[in-house]
Give the backbone structure.
Amino acid sequence: MRVGSNVRAGQNVLISSHVAHAPLARALARQSYAAGARYVDVQYGDPHVRRAMIELGPDETLDYSPPWQIERVEAMAGNAMIATTGDPEPRLLADLDPERVGQAKPIELRKRHLEIVSASTCNWTGVAFPSEGWANQVFGKPDVERLWEAIGFCTRLDEDDPVAAWREHMDRLERRGAALNALGLDRLTYRGPGTDLEIGLLERSHFGSALFRTVDGHPYVANMPTEEVFTTPDARRAEGVVTSTKPLAVGGDVVEGLQVTFEGGRIVDVQAKHGAELIRADVGVDENAARLGEVALVDGTSRVGQSGLVYFNTLFDENATCHIAYGAAVFAGHEGTEPHEGINVSKTHTDFMIGGPAVDVDGVTREGRVVPLLRDDVWQLPE
Amino acid sequence: MRVGSNVRAGQNVLISSHVAHAPLARALARQSYAAGARYVDVQYGDPHVRRAMIELGPDETLDYSPPWQIERVEAMAGNAMIATTGDPEPRLLADLDPERVGQAKPIELRKRHLEIVSASTCNWTGVAFPSEGWANQVFGKPDVERLWEAIGFCTRLDEDDPVAAWREHMDRLERRGAALNALGLDRLTYRGPGTDLEIGLLERSHFGSALFRTVDGHPYVANMPTEEVFTTPDARRAEGVVTSTKPLAVGGDVVEGLQVTFEGGRIVDVQAKHGAELIRADVGVDENAARLGEVALVDGTSRVGQSGLVYFNTLFDENATCHIAYGAAVFAGHEGTEPHEGINVSKTHTDFMIGGPAVDVDGVTREGRVVPLLRDDVWQLPE
């Protein structure tokens, strides 16, 4: 309420919650009103209904965006939004036709959502809620209490003053971004087991943390937890192969052992031990889905990384280590909303994790100087 | 699916469900797709969020209708709608300021909803889902299994062929309506303990059952269960006093011992053993809320009545016995959508129960002939 969405008096607050997260949604609603919200709308999503659609609905319906849902997304502009995460039934769609699962996305809705997020008119955040199903996936048993503790640790709720701890943490990430920006990097390189990748940066690529500001200057932290500094890469320049270092929960299934090959900025090959079809469908969803939209650096001080767990949840796992996303660019800072040369536009945006102690990450400056950024998960620049 | 909403192939199906009714909402979504639905939208409502609004939200918010909710209601036109009922926490709002509870209604949303329902462009129905909280209210203990059985009995799920049983049942109610219409009634009179009431009918008042048809002739049963024949009375003519014969669940509380006095068609006095303020606030919500919008006749063959239970739920209890509603007129049959002289228009519509073995109901024809309709809960006309 005070760090994440940072709700302002008089705002509407749009809460998007899994039905199983109702206790959290209710607490968020109460606290939103206590913070001076004008109106709080909780929309509960239900993947069982989505499953019914994928299994039994007509083809034309899979990517349908109902006008009332679009109207609700439009209402984010000028208001606050909070989304809950933490899938209580992560394998719910695992037995369905992967192609239909991949197609089952409300395209127009996601596009407008990304546009409004990119326009920085909404203060928003994402927060997690534990469940037996999620705990079972993480620990192999439904130990919800232990998952509460892990989430509390990752989100700094174990601190005496969590709000102050968050402010300190975000200051440090902001300084890290500033140091990267001062280098004037042309590209990043990744070398490790199954990974030899080069990603081009744009002259205007600006590293920042998830401490965002709305266009009128109101700060908010868009993900909780967050451990990353990230930017928009040059969607035209990516070469080589990269192997995912963590499982990736996507479309109700878990992709494992993902290996992706880039040529001329595009993903040209997708392999995986499990779930390659899901990624192939996602990467093929439109013209530029196969190009990169985000590159993020995370070191070993990450609380998510330190917890030593795989959460099978992108919001957490992407913060354990370095990651990249194919699909739409996420603008770091205030870089405008119009698509530009080299800044990707797509209807999808999927993060996957490529860092860890075995992966060396370097920056190469526009003058050709190689600057080590990560060695054995240790941040190499002065802080 | 086949009797209630009677979903048509290619329709969107809008399901409005309490969060606690998710198992039913999921089953309805699956069966809607199986019946050929194009798209199924489940919107889960959460009275805890509403409670937070009433308790902590600003005054201006209480009757706010979000544009995205209005957009969803507009989508009912030409499509199917299913609403679930059965409150798992019926006393959730009981400790709040009754005036604020009464004011907490999305006025514009309800108005558009009633307009679309009255225009007969949507095939819709309401169905119940049991819960511990509801069972506790009915039985004094959380016997969900017994509530399932009662609901099954009331909705004819105990029949070998429930669909055929429903068709037979609705035929009988339709014949009953036709017999009433053939009488040419000018008014109804009610006499019993604490009741001496006369309600005027319009020349165009047409008795019908909840077997409705859309403007293009598609049949649906708008309530499950349903036991009533009902019509729109003359909102200008109601005189006398009437005492409610069943508790009335409204605004998260239960009104008991309600007694209402009419003069010149208007409610001029509201008394109750508990909850009078809730009814007073509702009756005062707009200019014509205090006038009648519905009058319904139910005899002792009602399965709801036969079950011998008080459900603390209007959909059930109104079907146990005769009832009336103040507020907006519900059009029986196809009587158009425009307000007319004597047909009430309001933003509210609240049913309460006034029949039973001790209440004699007569019709008086336009020629002044008195026709007994109900004696000791027995229907007096030939069927």
